[in-house]
Design brief:
This is HYR domain-containing protein. The protein is built from 3 helices and 55 strands. With 764 residues, the protein is mainly β. The protein folds into 6 domains: 264 residues, no CATH class; 84 residues, Immunoglobulin-like, CATH 2.60.40; 90 residues, Immunoglobulin-like (Sandwich), CATH 2.60.40; 91 residues, Immunoglobulin-like, CATH 2.60.40; 64 residues, no CATH class; 134 residues, Immunoglobulin-like, CATH 2.60.40.2550. The strands form 15 sheets. Strands 2, 3, 5, 8, 11, 12 and 15 form a 7-stranded antiparallel sheet that branches. Strands 6, 7, 13, 14, 18 and 19 form a 6-stranded antiparallel sheet that branches. Strands 47-48-53-50-49 form a 5-stranded antiparallel sheet, with no helix packed on it. A hairpin with a 2-residue loop joins β54 and β55. The longest helix has 5 residues. The protein starts with a strand and ends with a strand. The N terminus is likely disordered.
């Protein structure tokens, strides 16, 4: 096809790519390409979507080869308060285009027309130059990073400025008006410096139609982009050209403005999805909806790869909303899924993805107890603790249940760390439920068991029964009943006491060991009831056992006297050698056998004349002990009344009480007795004494010892001791009398050995 040259001029043209329904209407007659025209464009002769670029060209003629020129253009970045042309691009940018039902038009800036003839501009070469990125600080743009972020996202070929018959040496921004100023308009001007390689030079570029995807919305329904407003917001103008250097203005290249009506630009459908959701694993379904507001749209939903929640679409995937359900029984805890929506309107499809659209909560709770085993002998509490994740615990409400509900209690049921206090043995199960305080209020449960034992200590008392009066006997903690005291169980203490005590017995300290001694009182046919109390260190387990001890002899006393006998005058009346001794059995606590004689003596006097006179004399012989097997400390209960008659004189009766103990009080000043001596030795102290006198004696022979006390009239006032002694053994006894201010004589006889002494009792 022929080429043609032109006379000097400079103008700016924009493309008319025809109406969407019939784009070829505005094609060249000789070329299958849309026409660049020196006029405006609208819906009747152009069709675009936001994000396309409007193609512009400037044919400059009459320039001098190899000279440099500076060509200045300007475009409305903001018009009527909306974003219009936000940056420069390559002239061929009409994709995507399938929404219009035909392929994108192919633009050829070199096609020109002279009269009715269409020609290609003559060309010696063509070159491109990278368009520098625009820049607005965050203070000067309503959307941080715009428009530079959108420009920088383009492929490199989309960011080229084209020249035919020349070479571009620089492109610079002369002015970039603030996009946040109070005015509704903002302009950007650009200077292109080039060198002419022919007298006719063609510049070609594109103006990017601002998109709501980049600029967002002023409010939920009003985008910041200009598509859809009334009027023609898209303006590109030629401002001037001058030589360089020298800056001589080329008057033939003056100010020209080309505009595109907003009705020729179809805004893309708004693609937006309802907010992302948090869900619990047991959630039955989740509903997501299209929220873009574009009418007459069609939809296609899909769950993207990387679905770790087990989410699937239930029912239709082509409606304005979609239902998501778990592929199994529940969603997978901790999983997520993305949701992609294809929105198509006016043949334009926009795709948006909500990532993540759903996050399945993975609420976990761990219950623990310290300790998990309680021995009521040592304690009765356990600290329960619940730890929920994701942490912290303050994000959750807690609820505890106890099974069984009796036998113990929780300090609280609505906190994470209650204390369980047990009162009975058993196994207790605690279930804690942790529930998120905030939506979606997911919950989790865990279980912990506490075993409570209550092993009472075994209890049994062993020891003698019955016991003799005034004896001291030992009783034992003896749970196995083998007669041996057993150790006190661990974690227990014991205490001895009387449950009842009609005997006036005495418990001897200590009372908290595994044995105790009890000194029985003097009263027979009485008893005492021992109590042994075992208490755990916690005080929660108590057990007791008892033993009733009778104080008495084993059997009734049975005494059989010897037969009556007649004696010659002067014969011995000693029971052992002459008159005989009674028969008596020991009935458990020892027997004391003694006798008293009452002799009626008839005296007869006859004189030489045969006169005869008689009188009667009664002789009472004091107590004579023949056997005494009663233990010494039992003599305290013996009361002896000893009337003494001399001639026909008065009878004096004294009541004497003697006491014998195992550990009598001995004066420290008393001289030691010589246990190796062959003599019978005795000491009495203190002397004088007020109420009580201590006797200590030692016999060189084993045998029966009798210690008696007499007054100065020769009357016996008491028997201090009557019993067996061993050779060389020191015997200690005490004597108490109610007599006052008297001198007393004591006599100790062992076998054929006798020793006497005198003591003085002071007035009390």
């Amino acid at each position: 096809m022929p080429s043609k040259t032109f006379s000097q001029s400079g103008d700016i043209d924009q493309i008319r790519n025809g109406p969407a329904s019939n784009p070829s209407k505005n094609f060249w007659d000789s070329y299958d390409n849309p026409m660049h025209v020196n006029g405006n464009a609208g819906a009747s002769n152009a069709h675009y979507v936001e994000g396309h670029s409007i193609s512009y060209r400037s044919l400059i003629t009459g320039v001098t080869v190899n000279l440099q020129y500076e060509y200045v253009i300007e475009y409305d970045t903001k018009h009527s308060g909306r974003m219009a042309i936000d940056y420069l691009t390559h002239f061929q940018r009409l994709l995507p285009h399938q929404q219009f039902g035909h392929t994108a038009e192919v633009i050829n800036p070199r096609i020109v027309e002279s009269g009715n003839t269409e020609y290609l501009m003559g060309m010696v070469d063509s070159n491109t130059f990278p368009i520098p990125a625009p820049f607005q600080s965050d203070a000067n743009t309503p959307v941080a990073g715009m428009p530079q972020n959108s420009f920088n996202a383009l492929p490199a070929n989309d960011k080229l400025f084209t020249i035919y018959n020349g070479e571009i040496t620089s492109i610079t921004y002369v002015n970039q008006g603030s996009l946040t100023a109070s005015g509704t308009e903002a302009k950007t001007s650009v200077k292109i410096r080039f060198t002419a390689h022919k007298d006719s030079v063609m510049l070609a570029w594109g103006g990017h139609i601002a998109s709501q995807f980049d600029w967002g919305f002023l409010n939920p329904t009003t985008p910041r982009s200009a598509a859809g407003i009334s009027g023609s917001p898209y303006h590109m103008r030629q401002v001037s050209m001058n030589t360089f250097p020298g800056l001589v203005n080329i008057s033939g290249v003056g100010n020209q403005d080309r505009s595109l009506s907003a009705n020729a630009v179809i805004p893309p459908p708004t693609c937006s999805i309802s907010p992302a959701q948090l869900a619990c694993p047991e959630t039955a379904s989740l509903l997501f909806s299209y929220t873009g507001g574009t009418s007459n749209s069609t939809f296609l939903w899909s769950v993207n790869a990387g679905n770790s929640a087990g989410a699937v679409i239930s029912g239709s995937a082509t409606g304005a909303s979609v239902t998501i359900v778990p592929s199994g029984t529940d969603f997978i805890p901790g999983g997520t899924f993305n949701l992609t929506l294809n929105v198509t309107a006016n043949g334009i499809t926009e795709i948006c993805t909500l990532s993540p659209a759903g996050t399945i909560q993975n609420v976990q709770v761990t219950a623990s107890a310290s300790p998990t085993s309680i021995n009521l002998a040592t304690g009765n509490t356990s600290q329960l603790t619940a730890s929920a994740t994701p942490a912290p615990n303050t994000l959750y409400a807690f609820a505890w249940t106890q099974d069984p509900t009796t036998g113990g209690s929780l300090s609280a049921t609505n906190i994470s760390n209650p204390v369980f206090t047990a009162t009975e043995a058993g196994t207790y199960r605690f279930i804690v439920t942790a529930t998120q305080i905030a939506a979606p209020n997911c919950s989790a449960k865990d279980t912990v068991d506490i075993t409570v034992t209550s092993a009472a200590a075994p209890c049994f008392i062993s020891g003698p029964d019955p016991v003799c009066p005034n004896t001291t006997n030992t009783y034992k903690y003896d749970p196995d009943g083998d007669g041996t005291a057993d150790p006190i169980p661990a974690n227990f203490t014991l205490t001895w006491s009387f449950e009842t005590n009609s005997n006036n017995a005495v418990l001897n300290a200590p009372l908290n060991t595994n044995t105790v001694t009890v000194t029985a009182g003097a009263l027979c046919e009485t008893s005492y009831r021992l109590k042994l109390l075992l208490v755990s260190t916690s005080g929660l387990i108590k057990d007791s056992c008892f033993k009733t001890v009778n104080v008495n002899v084993d059997a009734p006393l049975s005494l059989t006297c010897p037969a009556d006998t007649a004696l010659d005058c002067g014969a011995s009346t000693d029971p052992a050698t002459s008159t005989g001794e009674p028969t008596v059995a020991d009935n458990g606590c020892g027997i004391k056998v003694f006798y008293t004689d009452v002799i009626t003596r008839t005296w007869t006097a006859i004189d030489a004349c045969g006169n005869k006179q008689t009188c009667t004399q009664t002789i009472t012989v004091d107590t004579c002990i023949t056997v005494n097997s009663i233990p010494a400390n039992n003599s305290a209960r013996m009361i002896t009344t000893a009337p003494v008659t001399q001639n026909a004189g008065p009878v004096t009766t004294n009541t004497v009480k003697s006491q014998i103990t195992k550990t009598p009080v001995i004066s420290p000043a008393a001289a030691s007795l010589n246990t190796g001596s062959k003599e019978l030795q005795i000491q009495a102290f203190p002397n004088p004494f007020s109420s009580m006198v201590n006797f200590r004696f030692v016999s060189p022979v084993t045998g029966r010892a009798v210690l008696e006390v007499y007054n100065t009239q020769g009357q016996r006032v008491g028997i201090v001791f009557d019993g067996k002694v061993d050779a060389g053994a020191v015997k200690s006894v005490q004597f108490n009398t109610r007599l006052t201010n008297q001198a007393l004589v004591y006599k100790l006889k062992v076998g054929d050995k006798t020793v006497r002494g005198t003591i003085l009792e002071l007035r009390r």
